[in-house]
Design goal:
By secondary structure, this protein is mostly helical. The protein has one domain. Helices cover 73% and strands 0% of the residues. The longest helix has 41 residues. The radius of gyration is 22 Å and the shape is globular.
Length: 284
């Protein structure tokens, strides 16, 4: 009788190779460059849209527009890149060739995730840096107009701007994990993309819906229990929207940002584990 082959241990080296190849493939397919170019154009275009700012702070207007650009294009980049890179492996049969080697499906899923997350991280870092540079330039321009009077321009907490950009990156990490989970059992790229956008909207409206049902007096106990359960299962993306705290007295609460970061990492690990479980049951 032939002895069974020894089980190959999990390898972070193989995982990092898959992640690195995912980054290279994303850049090669130009999805990242396309959305990065759009994001840069929209952020730089804030200068030409200042005339539409009806009485508000110019710096806050630029910041809000930049963060909106990062949210929209970052979400689209995350979903499109994750789905495209996953299904390209399936359709080209490279996943079958890779998994025929001593490679765990856990390494494959988390390697793909880390590669996409790295690409999205570069996107967030570049847009955040560009946004900070633009705000800094306008801040100095306003100071020159006010003859250097610091009282005329509120101090800008640039460290908080970096924190907000980091939280957006963590949120996109949760979104990438969700997209991978859907792709792990989906048969088409289109279904994965559509369902990921639907869940993205649900995650943004989760807190509002939970608050509405929580304050409703006509809910039975089973329905209220269902609402509470769904509120704990579905990620609340509103927790990551701390952008308005940048301009509030005291700035962004560092402890709150840390808690939201841990919240994101827990969801990434849990959803990633579900994606691995689903992918193990899939015939390639």
């Amino acid at each position: 009788m032939t002895a069974p082959l020894p089980r190959v241990p999990f390898s972070f080296a193989r995982l990092s190779v898959i992640a690195g190849n995912t980054v290279l493939e994303a850049v090669r397919q130009k999805v990242f460059l396309f959305f990065l170019l759009l994001g840069v154009v929209f952020v730089l275009g804030a200068q030409s849209l200042l005339d539409f700012n009806f009485g508000g702070s110019q710096l806050k207007f630029i910041y809000d527009l930049g963060m909106g650009t990062m949210l929209f294009f970052g979400s689209t980049l995350t979903i499109a890149t994750t789905a495209q890179l996953f299904f390209s492996e399936i359709e080209n049969r490279t996943a079958l060739t890779l998994l025929a080697k001593p490679v765990w499906r856990t390494e494959f899923i988390f390697g793909k995730f880390l590669g996409v997350w790295a690409v999205v991280g570069v996107f967030c870092a570049l847009l955040t840096g560009l946004l900070i540079s633009l705000i800094l330039w306008h801040e100095h321009a306003l100071l020159r107009e006010q003859s250097g009077s610091l009282a005329a321009v509120a101090a800008i907490p640039y460290g908080d701007l970096v924190t907000v950009g980091l939280l957006q990156w963590l949120k996109f990490g949760v979104l990438a994990a969700i997209t991978l989970l859907i792709a792990s059992f989906s048969n088409t790229n289109l279904f994965t993309v559509v369902m990921s956008f639907v869940i993205l909207v649900i995650c943004h409206l989760q807190a509002l819906a939970h608050r509405f049902y929580e304050n409703s007096e006509n809910l039975t106990r089973p329905v209220r229990l269902l609402v509470e359960t769904l509120a704990r299962i579905i990620p609340n993306f509103q927790l990551f929207n701390v952008a308005d705290q940048v301009w509030a007295p005291g700035g962004v609460d560092g402890l709150l940002a840390l808690r939201v970061g841990c919240y994101a990492l827990v969801y990434i690990l849990v959803i990633g584990a579900l994606a691995v479980y689903s992918f193990r049951r899939r015939e390639i």
